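TASK: fixed-backbone design
INPUT:
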């Protein structure tokens, strides 16, 4: 069920701030003003049923990730933190991501999990560092040591890929491969590969014609580095998988890019646009500012708030500078 964070609202005469609810019905304007319908269950002081919270406008609340805990603020951002401070904090986090990726290339960091919402540049930061390393590798005619795997993977496919990047100095990036977290065999392989111990031994004890055909042993020592990129917040997982994810976090470095609110996601987009993301479109500063303002105003209606979405809207503006807002509303926004 969709969740929202009420930034400021009123219920039964009491003021509500920075509280996450399960959304039952979207924002509407009634006889007495705007309101949203949410579930009061598990919220201290709220009835265990549907309730209406009065809000001034659609900007009085924001969508949050499904992993956000009901009844609690969705981030550690302090109210007094300015936009510039948020941008600097996010910039620092992504710099840490690049620094640790370089450390993975050097073999210092042997296992790292990177988590953050989709479309904010997690993969780009890692791949940019790897691409620079690849150029240096080609110049010295050394064998390819860096690989990126995206999407689903079977357990035996994961074992095979880990073997291919098992040598010291190799780096394997598993990007959006969350399916391995829900398969017991794949999960155990990932735990072993991400382990910080001196020796990481991986085994495939079941008979496999594929491994025999490709000359892959049923046991090998993994000496490379693994970077696992995901949208899932490990520390907020519940149920049986929580124990497994906790075991992974204890074995390797865990970097949360700290973008849990709509505000942080927008400011990340603003930062990257300011760094030149839209320069190739030939927009002047006023046009870039108008595009960002349009994204901000419609942030709760967009299918997602991300760098990808900013690029989509920029494409539409480039295609038709007059009707781009109409096209954006039709292709990039949820229907109200």
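OUTPUT:
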């Amino acid at each position: 069920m969709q969740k929202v964070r009420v930034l400021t609202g009123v219920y039964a005469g009491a003021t509500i701030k920075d509280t996450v609810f399960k959304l039952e019905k979207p924002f509407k304007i009634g006889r007495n003003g705007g309101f949203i319908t949410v579930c009061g269950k598990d919220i201290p002081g709220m009835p265990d049923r549907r309730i209406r919270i009065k809000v001034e406008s659609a900007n009085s609340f924001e969508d949050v990730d499904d992993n956000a805990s009901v009844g609690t603020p969705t981030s550690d951002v302090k109210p007094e933190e300015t936009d510039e401070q948020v941008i600097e904090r996010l910039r620092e986090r992504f710099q840490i991501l690049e620094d640790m990726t370089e450390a993975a290339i050097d073999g210092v960091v042997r296992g790292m999990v990177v988590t953050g919402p989709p479309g904010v540049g997690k993969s780009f930061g890692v791949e940019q560092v790897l691409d620079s390393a690849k150029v240096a590798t080609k110049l010295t005619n050394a064998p390819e040591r860096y690989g990126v795997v995206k999407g689903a993977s079977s357990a035996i496919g994961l074992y095979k890929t880990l073997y291919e990047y098992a040598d010291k100095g190799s780096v394997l990036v598993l990007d959006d491969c969350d399916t391995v977290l829900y398969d017991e065999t794949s999960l155990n392989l990932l735990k072993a590969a991400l382990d910080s111990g001196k020796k990481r031994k991986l085994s495939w004890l079941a008979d496999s014609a594929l491994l025999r055909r490709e000359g892959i042993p049923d046991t090998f020592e993994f000496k490379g580095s693994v970077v696992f990129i995901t949208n899932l917040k490990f520390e907020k997982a519940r149920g049986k998988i929580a124990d497994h994810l906790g075991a992974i976090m204890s074995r390797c470095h865990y970097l949360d890019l700290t973008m849990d609110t709509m505000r942080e996601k927008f400011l990340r987009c603003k930062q990257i646009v300011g760094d030149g993301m839209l320069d190739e479109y030939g927009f002047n500063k006023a046009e870039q500012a108008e595009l960002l303002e349009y994204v901000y105003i419609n942030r709760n209606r967009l299918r997602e708030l991300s760098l990808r979405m900013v690029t989509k809207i920029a494409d539409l503006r480039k295609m038709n500078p007059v009707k781009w807002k109409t096209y954006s509303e039709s292709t990039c926004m949820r229907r109200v």
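COMMENT: The chain has three domains: 3-64, 83-256, 262-331.
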